[in-house]
Design goal:
Elements lengths: L2 E6 L17 E2 L2 E2 H10 L4 E8 L4 H10 L5 E6 L4 H9 L8 E4 L9 H14 L1 E7 L4 E5 L2 E6 L5 E10 H13 L7 H5 L7 E4 L10 H17 L1
Parallel strand pairs: 1-4, 1-6, 4-5, 7-11
Antiparallel strand pairs: 2-3, 6-10, 7-10, 8-9
EC number: 2.7.7.60
Pfam families: IspD
Catalytic activity: 2-C-methyl-D-erythritol 4-phosphate + CTP + H(+) = 4-CDP-2-C-methyl-D-erythritol + diphosphate
C-alpha cells in the first residue's frame, strides 16, 4: 500500500553537543540522515519523502541527496519553531488526499520496511497507528527528587516513529491543535485529542532515536549486528 513520509530534520540536536545538525554526523562513514532515507528509498511502496529542514542546512542536504542518489525526496520545506510546526509544513505539501502519511524521525535510522508496511495497513484501516515497544524498566513517579510511587508498567509502552495516519485525520488533528494553541509531544498526541483511536504496532528495541553521544555507540553496535545478519 502506497504512502508518503514526512521527516522532520530541522532540529539542531543540542543534547548531542555536535555543534551542527546531528543528522549530518556519520555512522560507518555515512551521514545518519542518509541511513534513514535509504530505508524509504528502497521501499517500493514509498511514493515520496518530504523533508522539513532549516534554511542553513539546505545546501548541505541537497548535496547529500545528490551524492547518495536519493531520488524519492519530493519536497524540501522549512521547519517551524517546534517539531509540530515542521510536520504541519510538510503535511501541507503532501500529494495525496486521504492516503496514508507517515511521520518519522530523521534520527531513527533502524526502522524496518516490513514493520512500515504493517503500520501503513493498520493506519489505513483505523486512521492512526504508531510503532511502540513495551516498557522494560521499573518506572517511578518522582517529585522533588523523591519517589512518590512505583508505576504499574504492564500497560506502559515507549512510543517510537514512524507514526502513520490517514491524511484527513492528521490534518484535522493539526487544525484542532492550532485552534486551541496545543503543543503536543508527537503527532499521536494531537490525534488523541479529537478524540480518535490510535492503534499500537509493536516495534523493535533497535529502533532507537539518536539523541545523545552515547546513542552513537549503540547505533554502531546495531549496524554491526545488522551486517552480521545479512
Amino acid at each position: 500500500m502506497a504512502y508518503e513520509v514526512i521527516i522532520p530534520a530541522a532540529g539542531q540536536g543540542k543534547r548531542m553537543g555536535a555543534g551542527k545538525n546531528k543528522l549530518l554526523l556519520e555512522l560507518n562513514d555515512v551521514p545518519v540522515l542518509i541511513h534513514t532515507l535509504r530505508v524509504f528509498e528502497q521501499d517500493p511502496q514509498c511514493e515520496g519523502m518530504i523533508l522539513a529542514i532549516s534554511p542553513e542546512d539546505e545546501e548541505s542536504f541537497r548535496k547529500l541527496l545528490k551524492q547518495y542518489k536519493i531520488q524519492k525526496v519530493s519536497k524540501l520545506v522549512y521547519g517551524g519553531k517546534e517539531r509540530q510546526h515542521s510536520v504541519y509544513n510538510g503535511l501541507e505539501e503532501a500529494a495525496g488526499t486521504d492516503d496514508v502519511i507517515l511521520v518519522h524521525d530523521g534520527a531513527r535510522p533502524f526502522i524496518d520496511i516490513k514493520l512500515i508496511h504493517e503500520l501503513v495497513e493498520v493506519a489505513k484501516e483505523y486512521g492512526a497507528a504508531v510503532v511502540a515497544v513495551p516498557v522494560k524498566d521499573t518506572i517511578k513517579r518522582v517529585h522533588h527528587n523523591e519517589v512518590v510511587e512505583t508505576v504499574d508498567r504492564s500497560s506502559l509502552w515507549a512510543i517510537q516513529t514512524p507514526q502513520a495516519f490517514r491524511i484527513s485525520v492528521l490534518k484535522e488533528a493539526h487544525m484542532r491543535a492550532q485552534e486551541t494553541d496545543f503543543l503536543g509531544t508527537d503527532e499521536a498526541s494531537l490525534v488523541e485529542r479529537l478524540p480518535y483511536p490510535v492503534k499500537i504496532v509493536e516495534g523493535s528495541y533497535d529502533n532507537i532515536k539518536l539523541t545523545t553521544k552515547e546513542d552513537l555507540y549503540f547505533a554502531e553496535a546495531i549496524l554491526r549486528k545488522t551486517k552480521g545478519e545479512k
